Amino acid sequence: MERNESDGTSHPPLTGNPKFSEHRSADYYIDETPIWRDGTPIPQNIFTPMQWRIWWLSTAGKFFEGMIVFMTGVSHTLIAREFGLSAVSVGFVTAATLFGILIGAITLGGLSDHYGRRKLFIAEMIIFIIFLVILTFAQSYIVIVISLFGLGLALGCDYPTAHMMISENMPSRIRGRLVLGAFSFQAVGALVGTGLAFLVLSWFPSLGAWRYMYSAAIVPAILITIGRFYIPESPMWLLTKGRMPEAERSISKLLQRNPPYPPKFLLKTDDSISSDENHTSVRQLIKDKKARKAITLSAVPWFLQDLGTYGVGIFTPAMLAGVLGHAPLHVRSISEVIYNKIEAAKGAALIDVMLIVGIIFAIVFVDRVGRIRLQVLGFVGCALGLFIASYGESLGTGIQLPLIFVGLMLFNFMNNLGPNAQTYLIAGEVFPTRYRGAGAGLAASISKLGGVTIAFLFPILLDDIGAGILLASIAVTSLIGAMVTWTFRIEMTGKALDEIR
To answer: DSSP code of 208?
Structure first.
């Protein structure tokens, strides 16, 4: 943006300038910054109001995921008592949302490559609201499981679509920080979920309190849905479909400034994409030799990471309840159940604070240190934290609780600094635009196999082998995750998305 030296106002450069008469890629325009009259670039990218709107709306999916999944860690005991569920049935309740995410990521998320990012971005929230309302009024165990699965479908779709809405519309050099900034709302949602569970139980100490917990998300979800109707489609995706006029209108709306900069957008077609590639499926993606390394890097560590994230995250209240002497086996009355869940929710909320601290560090260092190094470091730190917590299980009551708290807090911090944040970021970057939705969706779907497995088996294994052995076993999987990450590493820090082919 040039500066008028006579009155200090700004105005757009002349349209006859050769710089503004050449066809450029969408990434070029998004990464470009306005300049002063003498050619000096403004030191930072100037985000437009539309870019900020997209970013804020993209935080919602992660927030709701953290809120719903971690809230289930408190509410599942209440649901079990109200409907008289067995340990296996409780496993279905805790695993239903994660199984829905698994299916939603690979099916609905992959559809964004065919129908567009924006359409799926809106559809997922409509699905989320419908099943949230059904869950709130559910009167049977089957309806509860189906509703939680439906919520997972919507949240699974959000994994690739929200990432792409940010990464395909934001500057490359700070793309990592912006994606992780949105992802950090998963930690915020987790903290809000456990905190809200504590407040609801305090205000409504009854078995039916879980309904109030879930219903609290309905109004915010409606507002987010309305907002998503007022954003443009990804210009990068439109270019892969050969829809040039729409792409130019979309990027013009995305980068609308006052005064306008640049004055005109002239996008160039992507010659590397053939007409056949516009119909990429997951099967074609797997056949692509270059994509196989990307699939391994994005999916396998994410699978291993989810074993710890959801195992520890969902059942932290249950483990703390056992340490505090109020495990389900010791419960004698409904009032004791409520008291137990309130006390466990307090401890879980304290531990979950480290999720936010960890993601803050990830945002600060991701574009400086790099995705791969942070993911490896985080996996090693997760293993250390879980080993500390598992060792605490075998000690006396005097030191047992402090070690478990220290271990789980270290795990949460290192998890969000490393694998929990970086696996999400990497999956949305390492695939080309034409099948970024399918690739990121496939990685998220495979990862949720780990989440579903651990969510279903954790309460059963917790009773059979104890928390100590269980946590130590998950620690080993974290070390394997570090090795896989380093072996198949692809560093994307600072690179434009259109460099990936």
So the answer is: T
